[in-house]
Amino acid sequence: MPEVLREGGRPKKLLTLVREAIRRRHMSGRTEQSYVSWIKRYIYFHGKRHGGRHPATMGEPEVEAFLTHLLAVEGKVATSTRNQALGASRRARNPKCSRSRVR
């Protein structure tokens, strides 16, 4: 897990790091809300199945499982929705990561 400190030496919360990274990139407030929502869904999904592991300790298999779950359980999911979920889950694992797409 990345060690990013705030005053007092305590690590910042994951969603705080994500929000800061999004704001540094000057993304819209709605994009921020969407990413945070997807990250929360990703954490909840894996929290139930993997003992609450931090997203920074998960990799591609967990992302694939989450996206497969979206397709299988929630039905028809548009490519743009999958891309948004993929980007949010990668940002949850590494708030400094670049954008990526599923094709």
Structure description:
The structure is a single chain. The protein has 103 residues and is mostly helical. It has one domain: Orthogonal Bundle (DNA polymerase, domain 1), CATH 1.10.150. It is 59% helix and 0% strand. The chain has four helices and no strands. The chain has helices at 14-24, 29-49, 60-73, 79-93. Helix 1 (14-24) packs antiparallel against helix 2 and helix 2 (29-49) packs across helix 4. It is globular. The N and C termini lie far apart (29 Å).
- Overall CATH architecture: Orthogonal Bundle
**CATH C-level name:** Mainly Alpha
Poorly predicted regions: none
* β-sheet strand percentage: under 5%
Largest sheet: none
Number of separate domains? 1
At the fold tier of CATH, the topology name is DNA polymerase, domain 1
How would the global form be characterised? globular
Strand elements, count: 0
Share of residues in helices:
55-70%
SSE class: mainly alpha
Task: Quickly count the helices.
Answer: 4
Quaternary form: single chain
CATH homologous superfamily heading? Tyrosine recombinase, N-terminal domain
Radius of gyration: 14 Å
Structure at a glance:
It is built from four helices and no strands.
Task: List the defining traits of the structure above.
globular; mainly alpha; 4 helices; 103 residues; 0% strand; DNA polymerase, domain 1
Question: How are the SSEs placed, and which strands pair?
Answer:
Elements: H1 14-24, H2 29-49, H3 60-73, H4 79-93
